[in-house]
Design a protein that fits this description.
alpha/beta, about 45% helix, binds iron/sulfur cluster, single chain, about 325 residues, 9 strands, 2 domains, five-stranded mixed beta sheet
């Protein structure tokens, strides 16, 4: 971590053309409202892999080309293949970047795109036949299977953005546990993330519980490595509404006996409305949290599910894409 980095904030690698530098092939810079909104909350490490391998700005575009069974990064105007340069740069970059907790990359780029990047069927042909991953992005995905990695365009979708932020900050909180190398910290982390994990993946929640119980008396480093792997699996995909409702019902169970029939039926009605997609999840979380406060339920109040990431970043707008 360099001096300008704030250890209290997560660190994200971001494509440099997303608001930091006019480094696109045509000398443009793009704006991303989400990348901008995160600026006060994270440390950004920017890179433009194409500039870093010496292609310059402006430059003639590169593309992914399928050749002899492998995918190459090719610059048609120069009849030049730069796959080796990009592979070497990516290895060197990720080998030296230090600890990071997430990546935001520019979509559809043959270097940075994480999905649906056009792969042309040959150097001569102008039509694209398949979709794939940018070369730099492929290195990132391979090296960081447990980190949130997203494209800026997809982050305009509420559910994808929520998932990205939840995973980012959970990974960041877990990093502090790893640094502490303390079983006590791990137990506390697991306990405080119980309902968030339940909403994401109940099978992994159970496995994580077994890892923390550590019946085999494994060394702390081994326990942490195993926990990290399964934490990554738990956050591997977006949570479903049904999983969330099941989690709400568990939370509800903590104080349902103290509620009047009218309060109970109001809450159950809220769950149903959420199931039908008629109300936002934050409406339910707020009601449940209010009850947790009213009943001064410390275990519940300490749960990460209420605000898995800083509240200032909550933005319920949705591109619908
Ligand atoms: S998409 Fe990646 S390689 Fe292309 S301009 Fe942006 S940062 Fe550079």
């Amino acid at each position: 971590m360099t001096e300008s980095m704030d250890a209290k904030k997560p660190t994200i690698v971001v494509s440099r053309c997303l608001g930091f530098c006019k480094c696109r092939y045509n000398g443009d810079v793009l704006s991303s409202a989400f990348v901008e909104s995160l600026k006060p909350h994270v440390n950004y490490i920017t890179t433009c892999p194409e500039v870093e391998i010496g292609l310059g700005v402006p430059r003639n575009p590169v593309r992914l080309v399928s050749r002899n069974g492998s995918v190459e990064l090719y610059q048609p105007s120069e009849d030049k293949t730069v796959t080796d340069q990009m592979n070497q740069y990516s290895e060197a970059f990720f080998g030296s970047v230090g600890l990071i907790q997430g990546l935001i990359l520019k979509g559809r780029s043959p270097s940075c795109g994480i999905k649906d990047v056009k792969i042309y069927s040959g150097v001569e042909k102008s039509s694209s036949s398949q979709k794939g991953i940018g070369i730099f992005a492929a290195h990132a995905i391979k090296r960081y299977p447990n980190l949130p990695i997203e494209e800026e365009g997809r982050l305009s979708n509420y559910a994808i953005r929520e998932h990205f932020l939840t995973k980012l900050y959970t990974v960041f909180r877990f990093q502090a546990v790893k640094d502490s190398r303390s079983m006590k910290e791990l137990v506390q982390f697991h306990s405080g993330h119980k309902f968030l994990l339940m909403a994401y993946n109940q099978t992994q929640l159970r496995l994580l519980g077994k890892i923390v119980a550590n019946q085999e008396k494994k060394r702390i480093d081994e326990v942490l490595a195993q926990y990290e792997q399964h934490l990554g699996l738990a956050f591997g995909r977006l949570p479903t509404r049904n999983n969330y409702i099941n989690t709400f019902q568990h939370i509800f169970g903590y104080f349902s006996d103290a509620l009047s029939e009218k309060e109970k039926s109001f809450l159950l009605d809220r769950f149903q409305k959420y199931r039908e997609g008629k109300i936002h999840i934050s409406a339910i979380l707020n009601v449940l949290r209010t009850y947790a406060i009213q009943h001064n339920h410390e275990y519940l109040l300490n749960q990460a599910i209420w605000s898995a990431y800083p509240e200032e970043l909550l933005d319920i707008s949705d591109s619908g894409k």
